[in-house]
Specification:
The chain has 166 residues and is mostly helical. Helix content is 70%, strand content 0%. The chain contains nine helices and no strands.
């Protein structure tokens, strides 16, 4: 899957549609922690001139170089070296699971910073809890009730046919 997304991203870049490459990579990285895709995303964002976002993507990789350091510095400056905000700006998949030591160090510093700011420590967003009534479940219950009523009426009708004098 990663190779397909990356191949498509390079095709989008070649056709001058960097925004498509960015969107596809961001969507893929929402659920997959893939260092190669993060590296490509960082390059796409860097090419688009979004150094802070490129820095956030590249921070989650072991990639090094002048462009990477420039982007990471821009990312740090953009967030004022506030570890909590820096942590939250990383792609979700990086926050969920990363084997890059500097990501784990940032996570610890972000938790400390959030505690100093009086916030709950932030690790990774969870899907919001379902609230209210699930319409599909209500419909299923209504259909089930109708089936039970129909079965009961049908059974009564069949029994009336079978009993003499009914």
């Amino acid at each position: 899957m990663a190779s397909e997304v990356i191949t498509k991203a390079y095709a989008d870049l070649a056709s001058g549609q960097a925004w498509r490459a960015r969107d596809a990579l961001v969507a893929y990285l929402e659920h997959n922690n893939d260092e190669e895709a993060l590296g490509v995303l960082g390059g796409v964002l860097y090419g688009m001139g979004d150094l802070p976002a490129a820095g956030a993507a590249w921070f989650g990789t072991a990639k090094r170089g002048d462009e990477v350091e420039d982007a990471i510095n821009a990312w740090r400056e953009h967030h004022g070296d506030h570890f909590g905000r820096m942590w939250r700006s990383l792609p979700r998949s990086v926050r969920r699971s990363s084997e890059v030591p500097r990501v784990e160090a940032l996570k610890r510093k972000a938790i400390e910073r959030d505690e100093l700011d009086g916030k709950e420590p932030f690790v990774a967003p969870e899907p919001p809890p379902k609230e209210g009534i699930d319409a599909a479940l209500v419909i299923a219950y209504v259909i089930a009730a109708l089936l039970v009523v129909c079965a009961a009426v049908g059974l009564v009708q069949i029994l009336s046919w079978m009993t003499p004098g009914g």
